[in-house]
Write a structure and sequence with these properties.
87% helix; transmembrane; mainly alpha; transmembrane helix; DUF2798 domain-containing protein; membrane; DUF2798
Length: 153
């Protein structure tokens, strides 16, 4: 499998979260699925902005408070994933409802503690079991390719 295909697969698998959450919220029907596909481009832009402007800086400040010098790579990746998914799921539980319903109101805040745990669980397990292993495998292959090119020169 080519490296670019792995990156595309990783991106697409990460965004399985939206259709799953919408399915649990409104039912697993063809109409709900196609409606979700229509808002995915907007949600992708929102997610990128949230990662760059909110989650990234916030997690960057929080991580050093919890990570020690002797903590290994896997522990750091797990904590980073946990913190990022927590921040993004909190934000997207509210913003995603506004985008999905095309209304701006207090409804997501009223239902927040009912909806957020499910959204967090879906996002966390997809990230941990599907997206992160694909991303790590792709990065490993990229580094192996770069090392092989350097060794050949």
């Amino acid at each position: 499998m080519s490296l670019s295909l792995l990156f595309l697969l990783h991106k697409d698998l990460k965004y399985l979260t939206t259709p799953l959450i919408m399915g649990f919220e409104r039912g697993f029907t063809k109409e709900v699925y196609f409606g979700t596909l229509k808002i995915l481009p907007i949600m992708w832009i929102i997610v990128v902005l949230l990662v760059r402007l909110v989650a990234g800086p916030l997690v960057g400040k929080i991580m050093p408070k919890f990570v020690g010098q002797t903590d290994g790579f896997n522990a750091r990746v797990l904590l980073n994933t946990l913190l990022n998914v927590t921040v993004l799921s909190v934000c997207l539980t509210i913003i995603g409802t506004w985008v999905g319903t095309k209304t701006f109101g207090l409804e997501p805040l009223k239902k927040f503690f009912h909806i957020w745990p499910r959204n967090f669980a879906i996002a966390f397990w997809i990230e941990l079991l599907v997206a992160q292993p694909i991303a790590r495998f792709a990065m490993k292959k990229l580094h192996e390719s770069q090392t092989a090119k350097e060794a050949a020169q």
